Amino acid sequence: MKSGDIFALSKNGDLQERFERYSLSAGGHFDEKWLQEVLFANIELIQPTDASYDKLRLIPLCRELNLNDGIRNLYLDILAITETGKLILIECKLWKNPQARREVLAQAFEYASLLQSLSYSDLSSKLRKHIDSGTEDPIVFALRSAGISVDESLLISRVDQGIKKGNFHIVIAGDGIRTDLVNLVNSPAMTGMTADLSLLEISVHQNIKGEILLSPSVPQGIETITRTVLISTEGMPVSLEEDESEVNQLPNQASPAQRQMNEDKKELNTLFWQRAITEINFSHPDQEPLRRGGSNWCKALLPAPLKWITAWRSKDQIGVFLRIEGDDIRKYQEFFEAQLDLMKEEISPDIFIETPKEGSSDWSTAFFVSVNTAGIDLYDQTTTEHQIEWLGMHLDKFVNYMRPLVKQLPQ
User: What is the SS3 assignment for 48?
Assistant: First the structure.
């Protein structure tokens, strides 16, 4: 019995439409060329390949990128880039037999090795044939055209370093992908390239009206593989061997996809706080600019005995707080509790005081004057402007309120 069709039902359970499953096939309407065009025009279909790209936008740069190995002209199906500057190499292939799959994997890594041999200027020159960016850098132009705020020097540096290290993400998209894993081997005579590999299965369905449904999915048992791929001196992968075994992982051990997700979130945090530092200005004439603190927070320095005001982001919350620690925090607590009503008027009606808790660490015994807001998707780029405006407004109010109090604080 044929399987894989999709049936659309009414709320009452009555059959409304049937979308028949079609296979990608050479010479047919749904072939590799068709898939390439569809993925380039709808790059969001690539998102399911890896949880590490959750909330990270992908921007398509070009199709059929020419990569010459000195003998032949080879063409990468699609080159895309994340908003954090990681290049994504996408190959659209039909998967028929183990040998074909081995060749596809070898070809994908060959493209990666050829891309690694380019300088940033080489890549930029090639992209100008596909992107009409005028005098502007084509990658910067593509991201800005997509509505992404870009620090040009930072982005170019990040892409350049990624090229030099071979730090790409390779996506092989097709129909009928099996649970094949790549086993990559070591050899002292070879040079190294670090790359991520994802396999993406695209199922195609069409109804009698010609409407098409596409369903992208990661084949069961496959996760993104991050490995050092060894490249020969001729620029070819040394060996790619089939491995049907599953990867055993301890429950408390982060998968490669999870580790990559953490790295990508750090990149997003860096981009966010760099923009925040640039855009947030203080009205107090003596206040220094905002400074970067840790991975997802910044600080506004204050005169002694205070240290700084912290602006932070975590999970679905953003906030601003003043943290006080030391032997005399009870005196400070009493002082600020007496100021609470006025702080609600001058800073925010939602401001609160968090008293010390039981514990021996500096953090658990500290005293906080704090305000925060929740329910924000931190990595949704449409919320970035709101986050920066909220943080900037509350930081400025904190600074203007706290600086004049320094001489009044308990000694």
Answer: helix
Ranges of each domain in the chain: 6-249, 280-408
Answer left, alpha or beta for residue 38, where phi above 0 means left and psi between -120 and 50 means alpha: alpha
Which one, of 299, 301, 271, 267, lies nearest residue 284 by Cα?
301
How many C-beta atoms lie closer than 10 Å to residue 91's C-beta? 19
pLDDT along the chain (411 residues), means of 10: 72 85 73 87 70 66 88 89 90 65 75 90 93 93 90 88 87 66 33 63 84 72 43 39 36 50 76 92 91 88 90 93 80 88 94 68 67 91 92 95 85 69
Could you say which DSSP state residue 5 is in?
A: -
3-state secondary structure 45-70: HHHHHCHHHCCCCEEEEEEEEEEECC
User: Amino acid identity, residue 212?
Assistant: I
220: left (phi over 0), alpha (psi -120 to 50) or beta: beta
User: What CATH number has the domain spanning 280-408?
Assistant: 3.30.1460
| Terminal alpha carbon distance of the chain | 84
The CA distance from 206 to 339, in Å, is 67
Would you tell me how many other CB atoms lie within 10 Å of the CB of residue 295?
Answer: 12
